[in-house]
Amino acid sequence: MATAIQVEGVTRRFGAVEALCRVDLEVSAGERVALIGPSGCGKTTLLKVLGAQLAPDEGTVEVLGRNPLLLNERELRALRSALAFLPQDLGLVPNMRVIQNVVGGRFGKRSLWGALRDLILPGLEERRRIFALLGRVGIAEKMYDRVDSLSGGQQQRVAVARALFQEPEVLLADEPISAVDPARARQLLELLVGLCGEEELTLVVSMHQLELAREHFSRIVGLKEGRILFDREADALEAEEMRALYELETEV
Ligand SMILES: Nc1ncnc2c1ncn2[C@@H]1O[C@H](COP(=O)(O)OP(=O)(O)OP(=O)(O)O)[C@@H](O)[C@H]1O
Ligand SMILES: [Mg+2]
């Protein structure tokens, strides 16, 4: 199977903090991986490196066969538009409508004029696509509602629709289920994993809930203090490894 993501020896520092330390990770095209680990272990930093949003200090990154550091601005924009990033804070514009936020997912691919026109009034074909996409994430009736009138869980669905509207090859989701209750978290994760399966997208999702991760992902990567502690088939994960991952929180 083709390789979608190849990370070798990646280190990233913020001042004295080593957020990532010699991280190696390879993800095949179409594979779905959960990235777990306690707060501050480097999940967001790693996802940003994978999303070509943050450069490593050391090591190499190849996403979809390209090293972001070697690309010119136009090539980098093209690469980023193939990588949808669902940020931890969702990155939605609260005082705009759902449809406008979803359309925003395509800005990387449009000319400025096309993007502005979309923002003012998406064409009929676009509106049909958005309606269908919102239907798939279960909030079609909210298409013309303002984002700040929706619940946290509904806003997460808007962010998922926005990412998919971009028609990416890789979806990087940073704690997409953190703001909802356990039942909705499971539902949203099912939706995300299901949609990515249908579209054959490569999916990397960070989260804290190990049990949910094991339910929905066959491969689990555990990150602790910027290092990969384990990278396993979910079924092969041992209690000792899981304990070691959580241990950090009591140590600190
Ligand atoms: N922009 C930044 N400036 C300074 N330090 C940073 C920055 N981004 C991350 N860090 C530090 O790098 C480390 C890893 O942070 P990161 O946000 O990747 O963790 P995380 O696993 O996503 O945590 P959480 O689960 O709380 O979201 C932390 O110690 C954090 O303080
Ligand atoms: Mg984070």
User: What would the average pLDDT be, to the nearest integer?
Assistant: 90
Instruction: List cofactors, ions and other ligands.
Output: adenosine-5'-triphosphate, magnesium ion
- Please give the largest β-sheet: 6 strands, mixed
Radius of gyration: 18 Å
Structural class by secondary-structure content: alpha/beta
The name of the CATH superfamily of the largest domain reads P-loop containing nucleotide triphosphate hydrolases
CATH topology of the largest domain: Rossmann fold
What's the domain count? 2
Give the termini separation. 40 Å
Low-confidence runs (pLDDT<50, min 5 residues)?
Answer: none
Instruction: Indicate the percent of residues in helices.
Output: 25-40%
Largest sheet, spatial ordering of strands: 5-6-7-3-8-9
In terms of DSSP E residues, the strand content is: 25-35%
Listing every helix as H and every strand as E from the N terminus to the C terminus, the arrangement reads EEEHEHEHHHHEHEHEEH
